[in-house]
Amino acid sequence: MSTGQDPQKFRGRGVGMSDSVTVNPVFARPGEATELPANRMPQEESLPETAYQIVHDEAMLDGNARLNLATFVGTWMDDQANRLYAEAADKNMIDKDEYPQTAAIETRCWTMLADLWNAPDPENAIGTSTIGSSEACMLGGLALKRRWQLARRAAGKPTDKPNLVMSSAVQVVWEKFCNYWEVEARYVPITEEHQQLDGHDLEKYVDENTIGVVAIMGVTYTGTYEPVADVAKKLDQIQADTGLDIPIHVDGASGAMIAPFCQPDLEWDFRLERVASINTSGHKYGLVYPGLGWVVWRHKELLPQELIFSVSYLGGNMPTFALNFSRPGAQVLLQYYMFLRLGFEGYQRVQQNSLDVAQFLAKEIAALGPFELWNDGSDIPVFAWRLKKGHTTNWSLYDLSDRLRARGWLVPAYPMPDDLTDVVVQRIVVRNGLSHDLAVALLKDLRTAVEFLDSLDGPLPHATQAHVQFHH
C-alpha cells in the first residue's frame, strides 16, 4: 500500500517543519504506508490503530498539563466525570429540541450561579452557557452596549461614540470586544499606588457615552481582586454629581467561583445594585474541562430582547443568545455533575485547598531571598513576584522560567501592562490537582534553579526574552 503521492512533493515545506509523518514499523500493518504527508490529506486510508498511534505520539510532545502553572484552565476530573464526558460527547448544545434535558440542566446551572452570586430573585435572572469566559464577556459587553444605545435613542441622542472603562490589566478579550464591536476602550492605568481598578480618578474616564465599567475578580496578571464595592461606590458618587447611571459588568472568570466559597463576606456580586452582569469560566475554578463559560444578568430586563433570537432548528423553535451556534453540550452536563458531586461544602474545601497551596508557595518563594511578592495568593489561588532591585544583573525571571521549563514546569515571566511595563513578574496559578506534594517538588526545583543562577560569574545571553509575548 502506498500513499499515492510522491514524497518529493512535500520537501521544503515550511521552516523547521517535518514534511511527512513516519510510522514506526511496530505500529504499521503489512501493506500500510509507513510515511504519510504531514500537511496534506493522505490519498488512502490507515487502520484506526495506526492513525491513533500517530496522533498519540505527536500529542506526547505537548507539556504535562498538571505541571502547567501558567494556565487557569482545569486539567483534571475524576473517573466518573471522564465517563460522563465520553457518553455525552455527541450532544450539540444548540439542539435543545433533540436534547431537552441537557437544555433544562443548562438552565439549572445558571440559576444556581445566580443564587450563588446573590441575585435578588434567581428565578427572575437570566443567563446562558458559552464556550468560555471570552464568549461570556462578549455577550456581557454586547448587552451593555445595546442597553446604552436603546436609552440614547429614546432620549434622541447619538449612539456613535460608545466607550467602555476598564483597568489596563484586563484580559485581552476586552480589547477584542472593543475592537470587534467598535467601542472605544478607555484604560485606567494600574500603578504602584493603585495596583487594581479601585475607583481612583474614575470620574476622568466616564462620560455620557460610557456603556459600562468592567471590574475584574481575579486579574490575570497577578490574581488579585479589583474592589468592586469601591468602584460601585465611586460610580454612585459620580451619578449623584452628574446624573450618569453607569452599570458594572464583573469579569469573574476565576474569582466568581472562589469568592462565594472562600470569601463569602466580600461584596462584589449582585448584592451591589450597580452590578448588572457577571461571567465566569466553568473550565477554570468551576472545575470542568474546557471549554465552558457562564454569563448571568441580575434580572431579565437587563438583557435586551432584541439580542435574543428565536430559531427554528431540527424540529423546534428555541431562543438563543450566543456568538457560537453548534457547540458541545457535554461540558454543561459536567458542570451539573460537579455541582451535584461537590455541593457548596465540597467546592469550599477544594478551593480552600488551592488557596492554602498558593499561600504556602508564596510564603516559601518570598523566603528564598531574591524575590518580592506582588501578592500572596489570598484572593484567587494565584500570585506573582518580581526580582528585588539590585539582587543581580546576571539573570532575569525569563532565565528562571527557562530553567524551570527544563524540569517540566511552565511558570511564565512577562512584563506588567502599560505604565508598569518596566516591571517583570513571574506568576503561578494553583488549580485543583496541584497538591502540596507537587508544590514541595516545585520548590525544590526552584531553589536548585536559583542557586545555579546566583552562582553565575557573568550575565546569561538573553535569547529567552522571546517569552515576553506570553498571553495569560
UniProtKB/TrEMBL annotation:
Name the EC number(s): 4.1.1.15
Name the record gives this protein: Glutamate decarboxylase
Q: What Pfam families does the record point to? A: Pyridoxal_deC
Q: Give the sites modified to N6-(pyridoxal phosphate)lysine.
A: K284
Gene Ontology annotations for the cellular component aspect, listed alphabetically: cytosol
Specify the species.
Branchiibius hedensis
Q: Which UniProt keywords apply?
A: Decarboxylase, Lyase, Pyridoxal phosphate
Among Gene3D superfamilies, the record links this protein to: 3.90.1150.160, 4.10.280.50, Type I PLP-dependent aspartate aminotransferase-like (Major domain)
**Family recorded in the similarity comment:** Belongs to the group II decarboxylase family.
State the taxonomy lineage: Bacteria, Bacillati, Actinomycetota, Actinomycetes, Micrococcales
Q: What is a single molecular function from GO for this protein?
A: aromatic-L-amino-acid decarboxylase activity
Mind telling me which InterPro entries this protein's record contains? Glutamate_decarboxylase, PyrdxlP-dep_de-COase, PyrdxlP-dep_Trfase, PyrdxlP-dep_Trfase_major
Report the record's Gene Ontology biological process terms: L-glutamate catabolic process
Catalytic activities: L-glutamate + H(+) = 4-aminobutanoate + CO2
What does the record give as cofactor?
A: pyridoxal 5'-phosphate
